[in-house]
Design a protein that fits this description.
Layout: H1 5-11, E1 13-15, H2 18-25, E2 30-36, H3 47-57, E3 62-68, E4 85-90, E5 93-99, H4 103-121, H5 137-179, H6 200-206
Parallel strand pairs: 1-3, 2-3
Antiparallel strand pairs: 2-4, 4-5
Helix pairs in contact: 5-6
Keywords: Coiled coil
Protein name: Thioredoxin domain-containing protein
Domain Thioredoxin: 16-110
Length: 223
C-alpha cells in the first residue's frame, strides 16, 4: 500500500494533523478519505481508479484525501490496521464507510454517495449521517463475524481436549484392567457416578475385560 506517495498527493489532499482534519470537514460536497496508519501507508493501488472517476464525473463536489489516523482523534479506531479503509464525509459528518480494495465497489459507492449529497445540497433530501465515534453497520457485522469465528474455534479446541482426555482415560483404564487379577473386588465411590446415575468409567473399563480374558463374576450394589 505504501510507495509512490507523490502520485497520491497530486490527486488527494494529505491530512496528518487534527487541524488539517477539521479544515477538511469544512469542504462542501462529498469527501472520500483513504484512512491509513503510519506503518502501512495509503492505498496507492486505487489512485488510478480514483483519478479516472474524478475526471469522468468532473464534479466540484467530489474531493479526495488521504488521512493518517495516528494523529487524528476521530480516526483512532483505525490505527494499526492494514486493511484499506474508505470514509465518506459530507457536511462535516461521516455518511458511509467501506473496507477493502474492491475497486468496482468503491467506485460504485462514490457515485452513489455523491448523488445523495448533490440532492442534499439541492434541498431534495436529508443527509443521513453517522457519528465518527459510532460503529457503522459494516463494522458491527465484521465484529460479529470475528466473534462467531472465535467462538467456533474455542468450541473446536474444547472438543479436541475432551476427546484427548477421553482417549487418555480409556488407555489408563485398559492398563488398569490388565493389572487386575482373576477375582478382584472393585469399589466405585459416589463421586464416580455421573448425572445419569451410572458409572460410565466402570462400563468403559468393563468393556475392556474381554481383551484381557477377564470376566465379571458378581456385582453388588451397596446403598
Amino acid at each position: 500500500m505504501a510507495g509512490k506517495k507523490g502520485v497520491a498527493v497530486a490527486l488527494q489532499a494529505e491530512i496528518n494533523t487534527e487541524e488539517e482534519w477539521l479544515k477538511l470537514l469544512e469542504r462542501e460536497g462529498l469527501v472520500v478519505v483513504d484512512v491509513y496508519s503510519d506503518w502501512c501507508g495509503p492505498c496507492v493501488g486505487m489512485v488510478g481508479n480514483l483519478k479516472k472517476l474524478k475526471l469522468e464525473i468532473g464534479s466540484d463536489y467530489l474531493h479526495l484525501a488521504i488521512a493518517k489516523s495516528d494523529g487524528i482523534e476521530a480516526l483512532k479506531r483505525f490505527r494499526n490496521k492494514s486493511e484499506p479503509t474508505w470514509m465518506f464525509i459530507a457536511g462535516g459528518q461521516m455518511v458511509n464507510l467501506m473496507f477493502g480494495a474492491n475497486a468496482p465497489r468503491l467506485m460504485r459507492m462514490i457515485t452513489q454517495e455523491l448523488e445523495k449529497e448533490t440532492k442534499v445540497l439541492a434541498g431534495q433530501r436529508e443527509r443521513q449521517a453517522i457519528p465518527f465515534s459510532e460503529l457503522t453497520q459494516e463494522e458491527k457485522n465484521r465484529m460479529e463475524e470475528i466473534k462467531r469465528k472465535e467462538e467456533a474455534e474455542k468450541e473446536r479446541e474444547a472438543r479436541e481436549l475432551a476427546d484427548a482426555l477421553e482417549e487418555l482415560k480409556i488407555r489408563n483404564l485398559t492398563r488398569f484392567a490388565k493389572l487386575l487379577m482373576d477375582k478382584t473386588v472393585m469399589v466405585y465411590f459416589p463421586h464416580m457416578i455421573d448425572e445419569n446415575n451410572t458409572c460410565s468409567a466402570a462400563f468403559k473399563m468393563l468393556a475392556q475385560y474381554d481383551q484381557v480374558t477377564m470376566a465379571v463374576h458378581y456385582q453388588m450394589e451397596v446403598q
